[in-house]
Each structure stands twice: as structure tokens, then as C-alpha cells.
Amino acid sequence: MIMRASLMKILRLGIKELYGLKSDVIMLLLIVYAFTVAIYAVSTGAKFDVENAAVAVVDDDHSALSTRLRDALMKPIFKPAVEIAANEVDTAMDSGRFVFVVEIPTNFERDVLADKHPVVQVDIDATAMSQAGNGASFIQTILLNEVATAFPAKMKTSPLDVVVRAKFNPNLESVWFTSVMQVINNITILSLILSGAALIREREHGTIEHLLVMPVKPFEIMLSKIWANGLVIVVAATLCLTIVVERLLGVTVNGSVPLFVLIAVLYLFSVTSLGILIATFTTSMAQFGLLVMPVMIVMMLLSGSMTPTESMPVWLQDIMLISPSTHFVALAQAVLYRGAGLDLIWGRMLILFGIGFCFFALSLARFRASLLNAG
Fold it and tell me: Which CATH number describes the domain made up of 55-154?
């Protein structure tokens, strides 16, 4: 009976939180924006692929082969190649007109036929490192393929045939990675903001005093805020994953969406507790915003959603293991990209739950102390 009464209190308090969120128009707009426009804009706008890159050709040979090489640099990877003179290269690249300049030397075709191994120089603006590296590889492949097609007898046969197959993202499209990782990052942002704002809202509206005179316990208040705000984020994230990511952006989700939802629930238990913990150190929404921003930035940048954790120093990798975002990103990638099942990820899910329990215990202790001070 005591357990049932406690659960009913948690349920009713959570419904109160939902009504409070419903009346907060700005917060509702933030949720809608974070899981619609923000996902689509970042996924389609922030690309690591080479697309419509500006390229120029210095053709000092003017042969059939050099013309063929120039014409092979075409959309969608490159813009139509522009022919320029050799003395224009430095000025054109300094002004940012071209990312790549291919310089074909004099007597290029004749030297190819004579087996003299002529050299084609490629000048690259490496300001954008990802585009520069990928674009250079594309240009090298295109040039070699065109020469091999034009003069197959001149290309020596290699005894080794390398076949590369890309799994989980066969076309190597950055939108497949960016869209899902942006959903994960937005879950982190909103989990911290909504849970912390719920506590700040109680103080600013003066309803914290009402809670003190009610027959409710601190852990019941905390759990109500966690499940109410977590429910909103889970529903919004699931709809975003199925409607925006899968249908609108055309990204293939290989794994189980219900399993991802279960992982998200465990993650939300951790992050909403962390949001409440941060809120207990502040007295206003402005203070909460200043304190929560660096936490969000660290959790997103060092979790593996933007850069691989393997590229970080070992000591930093070890520190980030205490962050729930690190485990959530690894679990989400395993499920949504690689189709991993519960049998492969249950151990990391237990770790995520353990981290959440620790955050909840710390938040509950701080929350109790803040209620005593308020009383």
C-alpha cells in the first residue's frame, strides 16, 4: 500500500510537470525545433563529403588525354573544371576561387605513351582538411582511371587486387552519421535543460513552498520530474528518428528502434539527474544556463558523437568513461548503425544504469539539502 501510494504521488506530480511544460511556450518551441529543423539543417548543411568543389586545370599539353582528364572532373563531386594559366595559380588559390588546381605538364600524353612516367601536380587548399583529403583521393583515382581507360596497354597489371566494401554506410554519406549523432546531441541538451529548468521553475514561481507542505518526499519529487521530462524527450526523439531521419533524410536505421528507446530511457535517467544536480547549485535560470553550457559542450565534444574517442589521449578516454554520454553514443551507434542486439550491449547498458544511479543519489542528496534550506 505504501509503495502504491508513493507511485501515485510520483504519477500525479509528473502530470503536474507536464502541465507546467505545456504552459511554457518557449520550451515547447525549443523541443520542436531541436528535433525537426535543427536535425535537418545540420544534417544537410554540415557535410564532410566533397560536393561541388571548385577545381581548375592548368593544361600545358592540350592533348586528347589532357582534355579527357579535365572533362572527368565533373559533378557532383566537383564543379566543371575551369582552365587557367600557370601564372594565375597562386592568385586564384590565395583568393579562394579554387580548392584544387590540377597542373598537367607539357608533352604529358607523349610521355605516357613513351613510358616516361610524367608527373601531374595537384595544388590543394587544405583550409578545410576533411574536404582536402577526400578530394585529393578522388582526383588521384579519377586521373589514374582515365589514363588506364585511355591506354590500357600502358598500365602494368598488379598481382594484388584490393576490393573495399563499406558496411553500414555503403555510399559513405556524411548525412547518415551526422543526422543520428545530432539526435543524440539534442537528447543530451534537452535532458539537461528541461530537468534543470523544471526545478528552477518551481523556485521562480514560488511553488517550491507548496511542495514543502505537501505529504511528498524528495525522491518522489525528483522521480516525477525525471519521468515527465524524460517522456517528452523520448517521444520527440523517437518521432524524429522515424520521421525526420528515416523518411525525410532517407537514412537507413539497421537496428531495433525499441532497443534504442530502452537505451535512451537509461540515458535520460542519468542526464536528467545530472540536470537537477546542476540546478541545485543555482538560484536562477541565468545561473543555470551559464553552469550547464560547459557541461553540455564537454559531453558532446568528447563523447564520440563528433570525433572518435580513439583519437583522444588515453587519460582523457578514461576520464570520459564516467560520462553517460560516452556510453550512450557507443550504444546508439552499435544499435542504429550496426544492428547490435541486447546480447552484445547489455554490459554497457548496466554501466550506463550504474552511472545514472550514482548521479541520482548525488542529486537526491543535494535536492534534500536545498529543500531544507528553502524550508
Answer: 3.40.1710.10
